[in-house]
Please model this.
Amino acid sequence: MTELLQQLVDGFGRGGIYALIALGIAVIFGVMHLVNFAHGELITVSAYAAYGLFVAGLDWWIIAPAIVLVAGLTSVAIEFVAFRWVRGAPDFTMLMTSFGVHFLVQAAFVMYVSANFRQFPRPGWIFQTWKLGGISLEVFDLLVILLTLLTLGITYWVLQRTMFGMSLRAAAEDFDAARLMGIRSDRIIRGAFALSGLLAGVAAVFWLMRSGQAGPTAGLSPMLKGVLAALIGGLGSLTGAVMGGVILGLAEVLLISRLPESLVGLTDGIVFLLIALLFVFRPQGLVTVRRAERV
Amino acid sequence: MPRRVVDRLVLPLAGSLTTYLVLVGGGIVYATVGNSASDGLVTQMLINAVVVLGMQIYIGNTGVLSFGHIGFGAIAGYAFAIFAISPERKAEQIPDAPFGLAAVDLTPFQSSMVAGLIAVVVAFVIGLGLARSGARSGAVAATVITLALLFVVHEVARNWIDLTRGGKTGLSFSPLGGVTLQGRGWIYLALFLALLSARLFKETSIGRLAQAAREDDLAARSMGIHPALQQMVALLLSVFVVSIGATLRVFELGSINPRLFFFKYTLLTLTMLIVGGRNSVTGCLVGVVIITTGSELTRYLAGPSVDLPFLNWLLRSGLTDVFLGASMLGFMIFRPDGVLGDWEPDHWMARRSVGKFTDQPLEHSPVGGLRPEGLLRATGVVVDFGGFRALNGVDLTASSNEVVGLIGPNGAGKTTLLNTITSLVTPSSGSIHLDENSLDGLPSHLVARAGVVRTFQNLRLFPALSVQENIEVARLAAAGRVVGCSQPDVEFVIRASGLSELRHRRAGELDYGNARRLELARAAAAAPRFLLLDEPTSGMGDLESEQMIHRIRDIAGLVQAGVVVVDHDLNFITGICDRVYVLDQGKVIAEGTPDEVSQNPVVQAAYLGGPIDSST
Amino acid sequence: MLEVESLTTRYGAIAAIREVGLTVRAGEVVCLIGPNGAGKTTLLATVAGLLKASSGKISLDDDDITDWAPDRILRSGLALVPEHRRIFADLTVNENLLVGGVTRTGTRRVELRNQVVDLFPALSSKLQTSAGYLSGGEAQQLAIGRAMMAEPQLLLLDEPTLGLSPKLADVVFDLIGTLRSAGLTLLVVEQSAQRILEVADRGYVLRSGEVVASGLAPDLLARQDLFETYLGRNVDST
Model:
């Protein structure tokens, strides 16, 4: 029982990070119908930013907000350089473009930094545990859960209560009608990328505090998890993306704790296998958004 | 020689042979002129060409973006290494290999065949999954499934130490490593066969149907094409070719490790595929040459032999991967169909040859047999979109020897009714019957196979296929299912619709009038029992509409199909229809001959708003 | 106020409208009638900037707005209520209205929202309802109200009675009168030619992408031959 509770906390901690990434992917999909396989590059860039700031002698208290900002700006920059040109292009082109960005950013880091991972110190408190009755909970997990809830709360507020949020939701539902209201397509798409980048930035802070390293492929794993979570949630749906992230996090933790020792190295492989099976049987994800196609 | 054989076999063969000779010849010349490094480069390029051709067969024909092909390559590569490495070497590297594999001793040729077959078996399973997920051009689920395969294979290769010796060292053929593939004979042969497979597959009926679904999934389904079978065949062939390429790669390097077939090789081969043009076999070879040259050039520029101080920031190691990523991105942004699009050298030859064949008059009667009368019935159809009731209890009957019109104001539900009959929209209640058979709940491709074929208001041709291919596809989709008469000959349909001169034009290049003609011809080539036409004259002038009347009547008479036509133009409807239904607000408000209907005050009110006082 | 000169819009190879000319003067209600597929919706969408004109010129007051983006056209005082209303079904009624006022400042937006709700009392009790749950008539009022939030001088209505029962259509025609007396200039596309001509000052008849007749509404109403053209019968044969 206590073990299960610990696993749940662990799972929600992980799932929270996935949810933030997935939500960003879903926001972009909403306005552009693009599945952004380059979303992980925001975390890669953040990782190098964190490494650089450490070398410059800064502390996590400054690095954390800086990372969030860097991720937001990078996201807008990627939109400006690449995705702006393929708006409304066929699905194949948009998918391939996002992979192009993914590969290009990766290659640029290999070229200008190194193919090897750079280590930076993780904050000391992340391994502390907190005893509650018979259960010991990782402080970090609790913090992640708390901050994730806070971030999701703020995002929810932005989407529901601000003019920007309403415009974004309107544009996600009917882009042309939104343009008729005077919403500028450039601005709203850039705004979506900024929001999505900031969310990825928050996720990056947690991810990097745990991993403590920067490398050209640092963003690959979080990107895949995020895309998978967004797909589990049915892509169009923002709530679905958050749910997808939590489901994926819980599934992973429960899976790892139950796998025999010899298969632990294969965890990611098994998760992918399960996800692949999910898409075989539910290609639209678990949360289905029905949209009629005009013929 | 029959024109079809020339178009589909002789010219593609000639074109492929030319491409092959140019590529291999160029490679040999370069290898001879250059140093030993250029020899190795040519070898690698030709091997990559085999792999890329294999990927083209699937990605090009189906439009499904697969990231898994290099995963299949990894499976084949490992299988090949495990079978072909001598038992003595295996005893050193993987003494505990399961299934007694440590003792197996096969020749390289046998090994590569077995490796290919193993990969094909895995591909079959994956293919079933892809089909279940509804793979089509640009489908995200399919991309994720194939990406998962790439990762899973990589993880297994890294972790199944007994079989693969893990990630760090990998397996090797000789203690010293190095080249084991003596000479390039096998590569020449494999490349030749891969090129022929890819090029001829494009012309097979299976390839053609897959391309139709790639071009327009919805239109393909409405013609009765369910592309799962075609996609599966494309996948298996494609994986086999990729596997052969992968075994050659392993054999040439003399070793294999998990990194050899992972993201980096995926990036390289995918870039080659899309830069040249994924829909063209020649194009993907052009891509191989461009990317190989470009990579070598960047490698040289980034190497020690070039020293340009002011460019030091750019010319450094790693430039090659940046070049690959930038090529992929740049082509997607500026030229998403690649250098060649879907062009093949034989297209050029075929277009030139159009004038040389004189059209022989057709001797035999185009369609034989008399079809029994058929009946298409919709009863009590109700369709709701959210809270909006688009159709509210519509009954419609059409016989196969009449032309039935469907008119009504905008938003009356005419197109929705066609969509319901062809199963693109699921009704809340009501049913559709063809003769005595219920069509309820059938997916749209089965409705089409039952004999109900439609056209679309906004023209859904297969734009990258030629006029002739569009018609062939429709005929193929219906082959073997036409009851009561023979299928009309493709040649005859082309001539009857006046498209003879344009047969090799891409459908996407046609002007509007010809595109409409082609859509009608394509529907007729399927020899349906019922032809449903959605606004066949929209955007046409009066004269063109007039001609359309005759054309529809001719072509429906030819295949003895009943016609249900939606149109807004009363002139046209009066001219063509035997009977007319008037829809308003989702209900049939009148039915009768065109004259009866247009005199009906209720109809006039629906169209004009309020009764017309005849005195004004 | 609005001047359209020899405007052509193509979808690929199809010219949906050809060389169309049209004028709307301040304070007028002008209607655009014609059979389905005549190009009415295309014309409005081109004027509002959603579709690109292939050739021709559109001017609003003194500005050449031919290649402007929709938001810029809106800011210059021209709003379009699109065909099928296209309200944001996932947003509440209140949010729909606020999004309609996205070009206005915060306080003005709330004022406008209150004015619109006064104008359409049916919406007042449903402000927090998701717009997807509105009935057809309410949805049409919301669509018009949402466009009013931008304080346009010229309002383009595309088939405002589409899918509405005759009784609700009456409400819409009354509404057109209300809007006009509120000082708005209107260009209305309508299926019910008879009814809209009774309300409008002038009309244009479109057929197959071309203007085939135009004139004062009473004159057009009196021309039986036009109605027959409209129904599709050949004018010469009658």
Q: What stands out?
A: The longest helix of chain C spans residues 166-181. Chain C is about 40% helix and 25% strand.
